[in-house]
């Protein structure tokens, strides 16, 4: 299995602070998040599968909480570009009909997160480390894989209890004009707590394996994800920008070993796939942060 070294970090579940919002980059503040969504911890597994419309509504609710803490970077060209790459990848999967949306959020932490129903967000801090489109595609493909396999949705359901119907009734009582599906989405909004807990390790390994296949299927070099994981392993555990990532994810070395075992040389023939493109938009984290601070004055 070929290995490439590139300055890139990814694959975490943490969101950085915004004015008058939870500070997701501060591990202590995660306790506030857990309390705010304590409804989820009171629930056990639901007695039926969540349908696709409900899945999409749940994702919208979680996305709203994330964007309330860290809004999208104010750069239309960048957002359009990331959406073009992400949508092309998503079209190569078995769920092309989801309302896929991709974005870069204003956080200098090095992280990425996907939500049920097709929303994928990466942080400005992570995007700024990409050297080419192939690396961006590798990150997005991993997150797309989580959505395809409903990893977050299953995690939410796992934390739910038979009491979820009671919680739904309570939501209806508070707002009788809200439709049942919207109340259900509100109840399942407790899924935001996975920011603090992270996904199951096996889910991360599965997303790694599926991600390289999605990237190759879309015409990209599948080793973009390998580059990312290698760089991830070189980051100091003392770096606050990746504190939660190291807390909630398996060791990069372990992930690389398992991915190498799964891939072998089967994807070497695709290693000539797209990596560098003229349309790639480089972004410097420090410059972006300075601009954001100026805009906030």
List keywords for this structure.
5% strand, mainly alpha, 297 residues, 51% helix, disordered C terminus, globular, 14 helices
Helix content: 40-55%
Number of domains: 1
**Percent of residues in β-strands:** under 5%
Number-wise, the strands total 3
Q: Based on Cα principal axes, name the global outline.
A: globular
Q: Which spans have pLDDT < 50 for at least 5 consecutive residues?
A: 2-30, 32-46, 162-179, 185-189, 287-297
Mean pLDDT: 74
Q: How would you classify the helix and strand content by structural class?
A: mainly alpha
Order of strands across the biggest sheet? 1-3-2
Order of helices and strands: HHHEEEHHHHHHHHHHH
Radius of gyration computed on alpha carbons: 19 Å
């Amino acid at each position: 299995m070929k290995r490439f070294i590139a300055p890139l970090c990814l694959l975490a579940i943490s969101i950085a602070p915004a004015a008058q919002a939870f500070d997701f980059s501060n591990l202590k503040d995660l306790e506030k998040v857990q309390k705010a969504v304590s409804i989820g911890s009171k629930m056990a597994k639901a007695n039926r599968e969540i349908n696709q419309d409900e899945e999409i509504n749940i994702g919208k609710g979680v996305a709203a909480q994330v964007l309330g803490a860290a809004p999208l970077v104010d750069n239309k060209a960048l957002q359009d570009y990331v959406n073009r790459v992400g949508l092309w990848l998503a079209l190569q999967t078995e769920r092309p009909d989801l309302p896929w949306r991709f974005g870069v959020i204003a956080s200098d932490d090095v992280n990425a997160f996907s939500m049920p129903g097709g929303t994928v967000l990466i942080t400005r801090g992570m995007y700024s480390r990409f050297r080419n489109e192939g690396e961006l595609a590798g990150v997005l493909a991993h997150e797309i894989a989580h959505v395809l396999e409903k990893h977050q949705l299953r995690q939410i359901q796992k934390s739910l209890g038979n009491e979820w119907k009671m919680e739904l009734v309570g939501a209806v009582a508070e707002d009788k004009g809200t439709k049942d599906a919207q109340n259900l989405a509100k109840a399942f909004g407790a899924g935001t707590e996975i920011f603090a807990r992270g996904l199951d390790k096996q889910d991360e390994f599965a997303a790694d394996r599926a991600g390289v296949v999605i990237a190759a299927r879309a015409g990209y070099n599948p080793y973009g994800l390998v580059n990312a994981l290698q760089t991830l392993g070189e980051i100091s555990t003392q770096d606050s920008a990746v504190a939660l990532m190291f807390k909630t994810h398996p060791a990069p070395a372990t992930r690389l070993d398992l991915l190498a075992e799964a891939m072998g040389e089967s994807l070497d023939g695709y290693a000539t796939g797209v990596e560098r493109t003229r349309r790639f938009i480089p972004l410097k984290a420090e410059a972006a942060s300075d601009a954001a601070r100026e805009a906030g004055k």
